[in-house]
Amino acid sequence: MKLQELLQVLPFYKIFHSSDPEILSLENDHRKVKKGSLFFCIEGTKTDGHRFAREAVDNGAAAVVAKRPLPLNVPVVVVNDTARAMAVMADAFYGRPSHSLRVIGITGTNGKTTVSHMIDQIFRSVRQKTGLIGTLYVKIAEDTYETKNTTPDCLTLQKHLHEMKKRNVAVVTMEVSSHALDQGRVRGIDFDVAVFTNLTQDHLDYHRTMDEYLRVKSLLFSQLGNHYNGKRKKFAILNKDDGAADLLARSTSAHVLTYGIKGDADVRAEAIRYSNRGMSYRVITPVGEETVEMKLIGEFNVYNSLAAIACGIACGLKLEEIVEGLRDFRSVPGRFELVDCGQPFPVIVDYAHTPDSLENVLKTIRSFAEGRIFVVVGCGGDRDPKKRPIMAQVACRYGTDPIFTSDNPRSEDPLKILADMEAGVRGLHYEIIPDRKEAIGRAISQASSGDVVLIAGKGHETYQIVGDRVFEFDDRLVAKQCIEDRLKKDRLA
Question: Is 110 annotated as a binding residue?
Answer without folding.
Answer: yes
